[in-house]
Specification:
The protein is 40% helix and 17% strand. By secondary structure, it is of the alpha/beta class. It has 3 domains: 185 residues, Thiamin diphosphate (ThDP)-binding fold, Pyr/PP domains (Rossmann fold), CATH 3.40.50; 156 residues, Rossmann fold, CATH 3.40.50.1220; 171 residues, Rossmann fold. Strands 3-2-4-5-7-6 form a 6-stranded parallel beta sheet. The N and C termini lie far apart (68 Å).
């Protein structure tokens, strides 16, 4: 294999190109300066997006990855630059998002001396990465980067952190990129494991074919595997209702007659009631989060549970299953499709329709038809508007739940949110990453006033890189979800949840972003139309009532039977 003489920093750039990387999100600093110096000569091939905070770089890489299916790449310097990556890396780990995160480190001979800006990123990140590795010699770079990209996207995806000492960036080396040889080292260590699925697929198919009340619950793993189309085919062939988790939104076409909605704490009534009455549940690519199950002792009491996941550590961790199947979701569904048989299930779907109609009477129609402006109305209007396909990104809190309940999702990889870690401040940088990865789509961010201000400096990234994100601020001047819990469960003791907010119009103007504000439903349609027609970034502020709550809801510590509507 041909070799070329170059520095370690050049080797890193070439390894990125050999992996097909086109975009890097990052922030330079002293210790990573040799890498950024060489990046200067690669900007015709590598698009670097300069963020305003290192946490923003990781969330932007997450948004890019989640909306494109590619590995997200981000870079930062040593010390505080590296430690600012930690929240984003933990978020990516919880939500199985493939990232390669590069952080600089002091010279190898200075490790352990408390040298200026030294932080042990390997020790810090071992619990929140799939793999953390410190490169201390330039010659290691091609092999380690090849392994990093493989580990990040193989099996259950997740983040990898590579700590790159300064001496490794400037040393000379002979560069060649032999990915096959690099991956053989991983195979020798037993990283890749395969298993035979035929018998378990047969058993699962028999259980579903013989069930009177089967339910499929699809999680993020279906999306990660590319299994959305075959999931829909399985549902149609077996006439089986499909619900999704918060992270599984977009795994199923919402217009499909078998789609019944979202499960969990703020999920739809129909699929939650169906969970409690199902006789067989196929849970695929999901981990039985407490936000999905409620109190696990009362979860799905009548059901045989078939749990399909690529990560064996998830089996029986939260909910005991009847059949555990270690598999990629798409591979399992392709095998299952061949063995499913159509069954008439009018009574079972009838239960769903009754509960759907009840929910619309109690919650959905009142929210959409309220004379005052509601978050539901804003989400409904925005996701229906415009001519291009959308990627919907959310922050965390009430804005997230209203977006989940009222969005009209119209594509694959069209939903980006922070699920497992629930990271406020995720939304704005993630939307930037999603827009960079999808220049032909409208990227719409729904955010609250609390979450937006946690990474509001990323408006500068929009300004500098001319990123046409549509920002929809649902502003109720509160930490809305915390305020809702204080109202319902803490005797309306609103302890430090009120926010004295800035003039967001002035802020938007300062960053060169077009701005509009609405405070009643009569203004909404015109403002949304203006936003979606605008060729560039837009900031739409919707002034909401402070008291609006997300219902229905399963209170913490309760079962899915304990749904409250007010």
């Amino acid at each position: 294999m041909e070799t070329r003489r170059m520095t370690g920093a050049d080797a890193l750039m070439n390894a990125f190109l050999d992996e097909g990387v086109d975009t890097i999100f990052g922030y330079p600093g002293g210790t990573i300066m040799p890498v950024y110096d060489r990046l200067y000569d690669y900007t015709d091939r590598l698009n670097h997006i300069l963020v305003r905070h290192e946490q923003g770089a990781v969330h932007a890489a997450e948004g890019y990855s989640r909306s494109t299916g590619k590995v997200g790449v981000c870079m930062a310097t040593a010390g505080p630059g590296a430690t600012n990556f930690v929240t984003g890396i933990a978020d990516a780990m919880m939500d199985s998002t493939p990232l390669v995160c590069i952080t600089a480190q002091v010279n190898a001979d200075k490790l352990g001396t408390n040298f200026f800006q030294e932080a042990d990123m390997i020790g810090i990140t071992i619990p929140i990465t799939k793999w953390s590795y410190q490169i201390s010699k330039a010659a290691e770079i091609p092999t380690v980067i090849a392994q990093a990209f493989h580990i990040a996207q193989s099996g259950r995806p997740g983040p990898v952190l590579i700590s790159l000492t300064r001496n490794a960036q400037v040393e000379m080396m002979d560069y060649s990129y032999d990915k096959e040889a690099a991956l053989k080292l991983l195979e020798h260590e037993g990283v890749d494991v395969t298993c035979t699925l035929a018998e378990k697929i047969e058993e699962a198919a028999n259980d579903l074919n013989n069930a009177k009340r089967p339910l499929i619950i699809a999680g993020h793993g279906v999306i990660l595997s590319g299994g959305n189309r075959i999931l829909q085919d399985c549902a149609d062939r077996g006439n089986i209702p499909v619900a999704v988790t918060l992270m599984g939104m977009g795994a199923m076409d919402q217009t499909d007659p078998e789609y019944v909605g979202m499960v969990g704490m703020h999920g739809n009534v129909g699929p939650n009631v169906m969970t409690q009455n199902a006789d067989v549940i196929l849970a695929i690519g999901m981990r039985f989060s407490d936000r999905v199950t409620g109190e696990v002792k009362g979860y799905a009491p009548k059901a045989k549970i078939i749990h399909v996941d690529i990560d064996v550590s998830e089996f029986d961790k939260n909910v005991k299953c009847h059949l555990a199947v270690e598999s990629d979701a798409r591979v399992f569904l392709e095998g299952l499709y061949q063995k499913l048989e159509f069954r008439q299930r009018d009574e079972w779907f009838g239960l769903y329709k009754d509960k759907r109609d009840h929910e619309q009477t109690m919650v959905k129609d009142p929210q959409l038809n309220s004379s005052s402006l509601t978050m539901a109305q804003v989400v409904d209007a925005v996701t229906k508007a415009g001519s291009k396909k959308k990627v919907v990104v959310t922050d965390v809190g009430q804005n997230q739940m209203f977006a989940a309940r009222y969005s009209k999702l119209d594509g694959y990889r069209c939903w980006v949110t922070s699920g497992g870690l629930g990271t406020m401040g995720f939304g704005l940088p993630a939307a930037i990453g999603a827009q960079v990865g999808n220049p032909d789509k409208d990227v719409v961010l729904f955010t609250g006033d609390g979450g937006l201000q946690m990474n509001i400096q990323e408006l500068g990234t929009i300004l500098q890189s001319k990123i046409p994100v549509k920002i929809v601020l649902l502003n109720n001047s509160y930490l809305g979800m915390v305020r809702q819990w204080q109202e319902l469960f803490f005797d309306r003791r609103y302890s430090f949840t009120y926010l004295a907010n800035p003039d967001f119009g002035v802020l938007a103007s300062a960053y060169g972003i077009r701005y509009a504000k609405v405070s009643n439903r009569e203004e909404l349609g015109e403002a949304v139309g203006m936003m979606m027609a605008h060729d560039g970034p837009f900031f739409l502020e919707a002034a909401m009532t402070e008291q609006e709550n997300v219902f229905p809801m399963i209170p913490a510590g309760k079962t899915l039977d304990d749904i409250i509507f007010e």
